[in-house]
Amino acid sequence: xxxxxxxxxxxxxxxxxxxxxxxxxxxxxxxxxxxxxxxxxxxxxxxxxxxxxxxxxxxxxxxxxxxxxxxxxxxxxxxxxxxxxxxxxxxxxxxxxxxxxxxxxxxxxxxxxxxxxxxxxxxxxxxxxxxxxxxxxxxxxxxxxxxxxxxxxxxxxxxxxxxxxxxxxxxxxxxxxxxxxxxxxxxxxxxxxxxxxxxxxxxxxxxxxxxxxxxxxxxxxxxxxxxxxxxxxxxxxxxxxxxxxxxxxxxxxxxxxxxxxxxxxxxxxxxxxxxxxxxxxxxxxxxxxxxxxxxxxxxxxxxxxxxxxxxxxxxxxxxxxxxxxxxxxxxxxxxxxxxxxxxxxxxxxxxxxxxxxxxxxxxxxxxxxxxxxxxxxxxxxxxxxxxxxxxxxxxxxxxxxxxxxxxxxxxxxxxxxxxxxxxxxxxxxxxxxxxxxxxxxxxxxxxxxxxxxxxxxxxxxxxxxxxxxxxxxxxxxxxxxxxxxxxxxxx
Amino acid sequence: xxxxxxxxxxxxxxxxxxxxxxxxxxxxxxxxxxxxxxxxxxxxxxxxxxxxxxxxxxxxxxxxxxxxxxxxxxxxxxxxxxxxxxxxxxxxxxxxxxxxxxxxxxxxxxxxxxxxxxxxxxxxxxxxxxxxxxxxxxxxxxxxxxxxxxxxxxxxxxxxxxxxxxxxxxxxxxxxxxxxxxxxxxxxxxxxxxxxxxxxxxxxxxxxxxxxxxxxxxxxxxxxxxxxxxxxxxxxxxxxxxxxxxxxxxxxxxxxxxxxxxxxxxxxxxxxxxxxxxxxxxxxxxxxxxxxxxxxxxxxxxxxxxxxxxxxxxxxxxxxxxxxxxxxxxxxxxxxxxxxxxxxxxxxxxxxxxxxxxxxxxxxxxxxxxxxxxxxxxxxxxxxxxxxxxxxxxxxxxxxxxxxxxxxxxxxxxxxxxxxxxxxxxxxxxxxxxxxxxxxxxxxxxxxxxxxxxxxxxxxxxxxxxxxxxxxxxxxxxxxxxxxxxxxxxxxxx
Lengths: 491, 494
Prior knowledge:
The structure holds 2 protein chains of 2 kinds. By secondary structure, chain A is mostly helical. Chain A is built from 19 helices and 3 strands. Chain A has helices spanning 8-25, 30-56, 80-106, 112-130, 135-153, 159-191, 208-221, 233-236, 242-269, 271-276, 279-299, 304-324, 328-359, 370-373, 375-389, 395-409, 413-439, 458-476, 479-489; strands at 3-5, 60-69, 72-78. In chain B, 78% of the residues lie in helices and 2% in strands. Chain B starts with a helix and ends with a helix. The chains are: A mainly alpha, B mainly alpha. The A-B interface holds A 66-69, 74, 107-111, 136, 139-140, 143-144, 147, 151, 154-159, 161-162, 165-166, 169, 173-174, 177-178, 181-182, 185-186, 188-189 and B 386, 389-393, 398, 400-401, 404-405, 408-409, 416-417, 420, 423-424, 427, 431, 435, 438-439, 442-443, 446-451, 479-483, 485.
């Protein structure tokens, strides 16, 4: 493996940041502003893509910016894992930007410039987290992301958003300062380094109780991953405009949380240490509880976005679950779920937003018969549901297949049962929406009235179609991403 | 001989004299003289820092008299940094004062500028001198000028606050002076280096030395407002005129922390402090109590100005606790925090000054709609607040980093816990304020309203530019924290 020094990771992070002053200055010309958003999005995506062949060839891209302390720099290192996450985030940013135009203008939202500025800052932090070479850098971008998302959650400036934003920050900032920060400094105190390495950084310096406490501080401390009981900020954050829920609270923010936990498990503790103390099983138990409980809660939610949020909480724990299996099969299945779930869930959120813009409805009980009026949206919703349940022909099948194989391989039947129950629950809370949408009787229209197709505007429909189709495409062509994960985790 | 150390002190001293005279010709002249004097002092501080970095400790003999008889200025990496900090903040605050002083004390502005420069001379002198008795005199100069300037504030309340401060301040100064007396009896010298050499030959069990140490440190603690000796601080700093609060809040307590570090490291020696005396555990606990008490009392305040003064009390606990952890990391963290906390507090008080300039009062009810009305000031306030909370890459994160690391090394987990809790409490209290500034007045139309009508009433440029510069400083001090520790603080501690 060769390390290549390049400024590309820095540029990819800086492009969305540098465009913010331009966005602010073009506040009065929305079209110009939106053009800049796309320009930044495409440049960032191009930079990320241009690094992909290098990573696939088995190299790494590195860049050290500042030396804070020995063993703790502000530094980037692009490996397979980070590349996978950056590809997901930067490609979906472009799609979401298009969707935002349709959504924000469709609803004549206020403060659109503030919205796009903080959105750009959030995506920059996400890319930064993906490319972080060590825990300090990761923590820096993690906090940046928390703070950049706060004004987006608070966007409506009313009482509900005030309470939600407060809960959001309490959970996210409270855990990262209260748990992750001391745990991180303790790691540095013990080892003198925070660099990620597949062998882990502790060379037999931890006892089992110490390692357990430290691990739990990290797993619960990265509360963006929504591990119960630190999950309730996510349903609250659904008050934000739907593009935020779609990109940030289904992909970027929550997956930075999961990504951080994956990094800590594989890069700080290392598989060997976790295996020797049998800590993988502990994490799997914690994840299983979250998977089952939040799936059950999702069943009872009538507000569509809240149901999606609880589904996200459960799906995020799949990823942690898979990585904590510590076998190559399980880790592959877990990490690739970052990608597969992203495309499935963002499609579902896009649909929820499109329905809200077109009809003003946000409760599932109001959506009977709506599928005949919005066939494209509901078809996409169906594909998205399949992706999240893990059925072919969507990419979600690939991750679920590997997760279940992983449990069988390790002979952990009980965990396999958890996955199967959860899949059934997923099907129970998603498929009736589609079924009722196409075949249910609408409450507010006469039974035999002719149905006219009235989709939301194109800016909303195109993105959700694109992500749904990508979700299908990933079923057929997952190989490049598998290669990235195999390289990134040394499987 | 390089006369920069002398210019550093003489510029504001003569500036004070000429400001007073010039006010008879034209009152506005005194402001520009003060500006020029502090600027010159800043340039000199910069040169001295360069000399110290290049050639090591600078010793300057006033009028050529050799110590221990003559007065010696002794500038090593530690006080070179503190000197630059003082003169830079003093200068930037004067820039910001051009509007606020004219509004608050229009009739007595020239006398304010005279006292202001004397105050700066005092602070610079305290940091530069190598003589224990001179240190006392200079502390008294800063204190006396503080009393007068605090009393220039709000009619009534500020007078009482100043009187309170005088009583407690005099007690603190007396303690310190008594301590120096004991030292003089034992060693027969007042020069710090000289005293340090003689103390090494005296057995550690000497009760005179112990008395001297305890009295000096107690005196300094009173002056720096270590909880529970802090009672004078919140009122004194919040009723003072803004132009003075902005400079005294970041500098006074920090310079006193510097004096404590100087006494511990240079005069008595770390070996004496940690190995002969067994006070360290108790003092770290005092630090813990100060941190928690300061943080929670800040949480109770409804006036932004009072809130910030209690944060100072909390931050003092950081530095005292860190300095007494008994290891290099903790001491380095405490010293780094002198710099970082000065920058953060200055930024907070600059933002506060801007808000007071526009809104007059800073009770929480007066803070509504500030993000729309004063976006630049609020940006500075948010940045400084995030730094206090400890968000990387801002400088507050790194002082916390070193302090927690030092606490782990010393096994002082209670101190680490206090630091984390205070971060969380600071997050709560700042976001409580930001919520009011952002969400209120509550919109009636449930979202979907237009903010185009919000009028921007921002403070004048002369108040925004210093805030911008200090904000940059907060980021820079964070990014280069490793460099600062390695080139300035660790060389001093070795």
